[in-house]
Amino acid sequence: MSRAPPPALVPLLGWAPAPALRQAQPGHGACPHHRHQPPTAREWWGRGGRRGRGPASAWLYPTTTVPTGTSAAVTLAATSRTRCGCATSGEPARHRAAALYVLPSPSGHVPRPGAAPNLHRVPFCQVLKRPRRREPGGDGSSLAASNPEQNTLFEAVRSAKIAVETVVDDWLETYKQDRETGFLELVNFIVRSCGCRGVVTLKMFRHLQNSEIIQQLTEKFEEDSAEYPLSLGTQPWRRFRATFCELVAAVVRRCQYSVVYDEFLMDALISLLTGLSDSQVRAFRHTSTLAAMKLMTALVNVALGVSLHQENNQRQYEAEWSKGPGRQATDKLEALLEKRRELQEQQEEIENMMNAIFKGIFVHRYRDVVPEIRAICMEELGTWMKSYTASFLTDGYLKYIGWTLHDKQREVRLQCVKALQGLYCHRDTAAHMELFTSRFKTRMVSMVLDKEPDVAVEVVKLLTLMLE
After folding, report:
1. In this predicted model, what pLDDT tens digit does every residue of 219-232 receive, in sequence order?
2. What CATH class has 393-468?
3. SS3 letters for 319-378?
């Protein structure tokens, strides 16, 4: 007599004692030296009640039966060892897998209530197994395919097959035709880069506040996954991070003479990044902070260019004015004055943008609980000071580096020391740091004994630059 499957599975299996599952007979796929009975409930779940311990099983059936009109999914037995040491093909039984039961799944055919199932014999080799759900891999492939809504910018950056400048030029054409559509494409690129499956729609953008949009995006995150592109260390995603930063810089570089000052793109983007950087979701904070810091660096370069244009304009105006009343070109003087006013307005707008990023994002994130975020802030702050010393090489900004020299994480302290190296290597900038030096020199000297060797080495280099 064959044993019934576990009681909990009977409703699912539509089990019948015979011929649904036959006792294995010699010559029909079983070991010729043994006669096996169908498995008990304990054997069904694998020995000890644990599943997935291996593909081997001693239960080998040449055929099984499936009700007509149903699609089959085979459940494999998982046992720690085989009950029989041989199989029909002469292979060790540990290399063979067998179907214990066939679970019928819904299909187009629905039998009448109470009607006996119409059974037919199906060779075991023709029964398809239900595909297993693939777990997210370490390469982040699941992140790339998690969202059915394909974002052009994200796919272009991830594939790395198109030059960033070309991608930005194409996006800029879209933005000029419809600025809301172009802006949402850029926003959804950032959202996808966070590993989020959500999409910001035009309706959401027009009718919801940023906090409400971020709340809806937060609900789209998978609770059981902590992976997002910036957290992955494989080569494709390291390249993605570099291209991500390059794209943010290229957007500002391509728009610095017109679109940056349209009072829409930068205002809306900075506002959204500020909200994302304050989220409780680490992926949002990390990605938006990186984007904001790179955006700030690009704006610093724009501000530096505007200040150089102002200096040139001032020299041209003074040269024309010095010619005297009879030789002055009135039209040229008026044009230079108009250009000066325009440059002054641009400078004020850029400074307002930088202040919004610094006060809204940097001041809060330089002490974030995530060390990678703190390190990003210190690295970019050193870049701003080195590039635009007139605005950033002041005690109001230097104090953040001095405070962070006491950080507990190696990578954060290391970025602070490297930022100071870039400042002390030039005598012009070092001359503006006397107050900082007197205030934090004790801490810098003590860091020679830092527990991290690479930090101690960089501190010695820093002190050498300070003594030169």
Report:
1. 887 655 677 888 88
2. mainly alpha
3. HHHCCCCCCCCHHHHHHHHHHHHHHHHHHHHHHHHHHHHHHHHHHHHCCCCCHHHHHHHH
